[in-house]
Amino acid sequence: MTVITPHASHWGAYDAIVEHGRVVGVRPFARDPVPGPLIESVPDVVHAACRIDRAYVRRGWLEGKRAGHLRGGDPFIPIPADQVTRLIAAEVSRVRAEHGHDAIFGGSYGWSSAGRFHHARGQLHRFLGLGGGYTAQMNSYSYAAGQALLPHVLGTNEVLLGRVTDWAAIARHAGVMLCLGGLPLKNGQVTSGGAGASEYSVNFRKAAEAGVRFLCVSPYLADMPEWMHAEWTPIRPGTDAALLLAMAYWLIAEGREDRDFLTSHCTGWDRLAAYVTGASDGLPKTPDWAAPITGISAERIIAIARAISDAPAMLTATWSIQRADFGEQPFWMLTALAAMLGGIGKPGQGVAFGYGSINGMGTPRREIPSFSLPATRNPTGRYISVSSITRMLESPGGVESFNGREVPFPDTRMIWWAGGNPFHHHQDLNRLLRAWAKTDTIIVQEPWWTAVARHADIVLPATTSLERNDIASSGRDRFLRAMHQAIPPIAGARNDHDWLADIADELGYRDRFTEQRNENAWLRHLFDRWRRACAATGVETPDFDRFWADGYWEAPPPEPCRAFTQFAEFALDPVAHPLDTPSGKIELFSETVAGFGYAEAPGHPVWNTPREWLGAPEARRFPFHLLSFQPSTRLHGQLDPGRVAMADKIQGREPIIMHPEDAAAHGLAACDILRVFNDRGACLAGLRLNEGLLRGVVMMATGAWFDPLEPGVPGSLCVHGNANVLTADVGTSRLGQGPSAQSCLVAVERFEGALPPVRVHAPPVIEEAM
Ligand SMILES: Nc1nc2c(c(=O)[nH]1)N[C@H]1C(S)=C(S)[C@@H](COP(=O)(O)OP(=O)(O)OC[C@H]3O[C@@H](n4cnc5c(=O)[nH]c(N)nc54)[C@H](O)[C@@H]3O)O[C@H]1N2
Ligand SMILES: Nc1nc2c(c(=O)[nH]1)N[C@H]1C(S)=C(S)[C@@H](COP(=O)(O)OP(=O)(O)OC[C@H]3O[C@@H](n4cnc5c(=O)[nH]c(N)nc54)[C@H](O)[C@@H]3O)O[C@H]1N2
Ligand SMILES: [Mo]
């Protein structure tokens, strides 16, 4: 018998086709105009051999090999569910009593699933918050540098996260759009919280058809869909701030800056102008100055500056550009350039980030409250910047400067992760592996034997979203999607909520955690809350039973005549509608930021020579700039064992993209297996040639599961191709302390000898009993 049930995921909405308790196929949600290909991998991963079937404890942990012992090499021993909840409860009580609540690191960064009730991270935060608290993580790996910076400059992070000027306004009013990092099609396959409609490329197409001229500045030609006929300017990675400063120089030299706007709507223009012209530091930031830095000719720099000042311009950058050394600076300077053009808040003009980073940015829609599990307070109030985990573990009791504060590092005795994978997302995994060893106990909730589960002490098997009921919702999509349970839980998998409820029971607060609701009661409760919020904004919604039976609800479309431009009221009247900055204006010089006293992030945007880039002396030893970009074949590490990602690999290894002439110069040929290395680590990768890549740059997608030849040994070769054994773990600056994965130099050589097998898609070594 075949059963078809509505479902949703970060990689798209679909109906699951179920036969005899197995998901055998999927078909895209009928209302999705451009269904993504990633849903094809769903049946493979749900029933993958690397699903975790029972709870496990690391043998060494049971033997007392805890703080000071490297994780990842020991066998796992199965443990019954009731025993493991008691074991965890006892360890949580010990850590809280002996070391305090902040000794539990519960940041648990990660995307979890699209379902908003069974959101693993949200559930864990609720559990830890109600239990007394934990140390949290502030901001996101995606755009931490931008999150710290932009409130100082524009008074909001909406320009980074949404609601941004929509594509209806761009198509109607912009003449030209400058896209740093392009508008890569593959990024639109994904929406956090899941989307019913993938309108990413639909938006681009409408703007292109409306005649908007697209300028793409990026090392990689494929960052722009071919059919948009964009003009491509390859740029050396990490040098966008220099390019933008030189464009500003030319605008000033030509008298093209909008002096009225710079006076009425901005503060600090004189300080920035003095830096651009060299009046303050003796170094004019001319196109000739920027040419050798960026690899773009002075004529081309001027042509781009001319293009954006000759026509109404929208300026954008992908989030990737700020995940690099001093990543705050290109975002600040792009904002400054938009201010110089006087476009901020004018219809379809100005600046916003991420149109090319995720589905839903700038999709015209009515603002509807999103459906969510309300956040729980963290009573300790303790946090670190999102990517400071290794530094925190390395220096208990230390402090780190972050956005004007001195953030203390706790003495971490327990790490708990649910719904995220630091052995996917964090930089310099060998350094993380050493720091990770310093803690007593590591608990991981995971459906699969991912690298983080393999580096845990206690592993709890989690259901996938197909094994439970939930509701998907995103602030960037107009659909609310029912996620019906399609199959029973696989083997011993349990819902994260149920694991935590049982542990809360041992600790004496089950009822506070569950509020005495089961799954169904929670979904109805959260739905009613959401329904009331919708009603308050004048939007009518069906009741729960109607919604659940329909499988989805669609918000009313925006009025076709309306187009949304961010900062429009401010543009019309900056006095009546000031920004939420100290001056109420756009801060081209920020007294607040200057007051932090960070030399690398002064009061206005600057060019800093990156730590790692093709202009560095180390480029003689490590001649390639590695960009570890988002994968087209999966979401981060999720879906890696599925057919879409597997079909893309070369002899089972993650591809590395290189210009054919670079390959020839190194004696390499397509499909060779390469050893990619630097002083931090090494991995294997399969060579793929591409003429549309700047020479000297190589690209590897993130997300191939970390598979060290010798698990638990720092520096061991990753045989599968996880780029994070190569990336550096350095904050973007003291201002943002964001991850800087994109600033990374590597060398390559052909891998000779027998190819070691990829073992990470099968379970680790398991011992049935002690
Ligand atoms: N080098 C480099 N590194 C990067 C980046 C880069 O550009 N370059 N990008 C960074 C960015 S922007 C991001 S957002 C991060 C992404 O980093 P993560 O969000 O940590 O990556 P995911 O693989 O999505 O991790 C989610 C994990 O949750 C698990 N999971 C899914 N559903 C459930 C569930 O219901 N319950 C439980 N318990 N677990 C579940 C999945 O199996 C998976 O292991 O990576 C960052 N790392
Ligand atoms: N299919 C798929 N889509 C995804 C994700 C996924 O895992 N899979 N992850 C989602 C998440 S969590 C996030 S945060 C977003 C991230 O979205 P982004 O950060 O925008 O994505 P990236 O692929 O890292 O980078 C986009 C492009 O930027 C270019 N680039 C890199 N460095 C530079 C530079 O210095 N200068 C210039 N001008 N260009 C540069 C690269 O050529 C790269 O292809 O993607 C989301 N979308
Ligand atoms: Mo992200």
From TrEMBL:
Question: Would I find Oxidoreductase among this entry's keywords?
Answer: yes
Residue ranges of domain Molybdopterin dinucleotide-binding in the record: 624-744
Query: Which ranges carry the Molybdopterin oxidoreductase domain?
Result: 51-505
All copies of domain Molybdopterin oxidoreductase N-terminal, residue ranges: 7-47
- Cofactors (names): Mo-bis(molybdopterin guanine dinucleotide)
Q: Which domain of life is it from?
A: Bacteria
SUPFAM superfamilies per UniProt: ADC-like, Formate dehydrogenase/DMSO reductase, domains 1-3
Any idea which UniProt keywords this protein has? Answer: Metal-binding, Molybdenum, Oxidoreductase
One GO cellular component this record assigns the protein to is: outer membrane-bounded periplasmic space
One biological process term from GO is: anaerobic respiration
UniProt GO MF annotations:
electron transfer activity; molybdenum ion binding; molybdopterin cofactor binding; oxidoreductase activity
Q: List the Pfam families hit by this protein, alphabetically.
A: Molybdopterin, Molybdopterin_N, Molydop_binding
Instruction: Determine if Metal-binding is one of this entry's keywords.
Output: yes
**PANTHER family in UniProt:** TRIMETHYLAMINE-N-OXIDE REDUCTASE, TRIMETHYLAMINE-N-OXIDE REDUCTASE 2
Q: Which family does it belong to?
A: Belongs to the prokaryotic molybdopterin-containing oxidoreductase family.
Q: What is this protein called?
A: Molybdopterin-dependent oxidoreductase
Say which species the protein is native to. Plastoroseomonas arctica
Lineage per the UniProt record: Bacteria, Pseudomonadati, Pseudomonadota, Alphaproteobacteria, Acetobacterales
